[in-house]
Design a protein that fits this description.
alpha/beta
Length: 265
């Protein structure tokens, strides 16, 4: 389905009935990344998944992209489909969007989940060769070799050896990434890399769950503690996974999030 919000056509899906749960995907992902969550959460809740501006099937207008723009898109999108309030669950980039939304529009946010997302609140150390890997991915995208780039990004987001031990699941995640336009993604990431502002967490009043992967080379347990210390009314949960915990360990991820939601609504 599509709806126009904040001047763009946003692609989205709704499954289930009940209180609103909105999932916000990460960079070079799209709404299909939540394939391990939608069937479970929609048994009890109204689950909304959508493609961020520039990703999946949502429009990709020219211009600078930013966390605040993504958050304003989400706010207008929420109003357009009749969400008065809900729980917003964001992965990586999506976690930053959830934080900004909760700060700027607290009236519609019951709680947020920051899944593998520091939102600029932790001192993160790039893993070895991170810059070289990013440049390689950028070069592959510029040359249109999207599959190779998607495989590199998927592998980097998962624990070592996950792809060899779980080839079917790995391929499924790669196929999610293949639904994005490589040129648009490169443009979006160039914009976001220039963004250095940190959210004013003193204005973040809703309950917050911070999820970190034990094997996440960037947003690991130590960074998770830093984020928890920075955000009032927050709790921290560890998942035995790399960066993409919702993909790698959906059993743990779903249990932790559902338990948190049950305390809120």
């Amino acid at each position: 389905m599509r709806v126009t919000a904040n001047g763009i056509a946003i692609n989205y899906e709704i499954n289930g009935q009940g209180d609103n749960i909105v999932f916000i995907h990460g960079a070079f992902d799209n709404l299909d990344m939540w394939y391990n969550q939608v069937p479970i959460f929609s048994n009890k809740y109204r689950v909304i998944t959508y493609d961020l501006r520039g990703f999946g099937k949502t429009e990709s207008p020219e211009g600078e992209y930013s966390i605040s723009l993504f958050a304003e898109d989400l706010y207008e999108f929420s109003k357009a489909i009749g969400i008065e309030s809900g729980v917003y669950i964001g992965f990586s980039l999506g976690g930053s969007v959830a934080v900004d939304l909760a700060i700027e529009h607290p009236e519609i946010v019951k709680a947020i989940v920051m899944a593998n997302s520091s939102a600029g609140l932790a001192v993160t150390t790039p893993p070895p060769n991170a810059q070289e890997r990013f440049q390689t991915i950028q070069d592959l995208l510029d040359k249109g070799e999207i599959r190779k780039a998607a495989e590199m990004m998927a592998a980097a987001a998962l624990s070592p050896n996950f792809s060899s031990k779980n080839p079917v699941e790995f391929e499924r995640y790669v196929r999610v990434k293949l639904q994005n336009d490589p040129q648009t993604f490169a443009r979006v990431m160039r914009s976001l890399r220039r963004e250095v502002s940190k959210p004013d967490v003193n204005r973040l009043i809703c309950p917050t769950l911070i999820i970190v992967g034990e094997n996440d080379s960037v947003m690991g347990p130590e960074q998770g503690k830093q984020v928890q210390q920075a955000i009032p009314n927050s709790k921290l949960a560890l998942v035995a996974a790399g960066h993409a915990s919702a993909i790698e360990r959906p059993d743990q991820f779903n249990t932790v999030v559902l338990d948190f939601i049950s305390e809120i609504i």
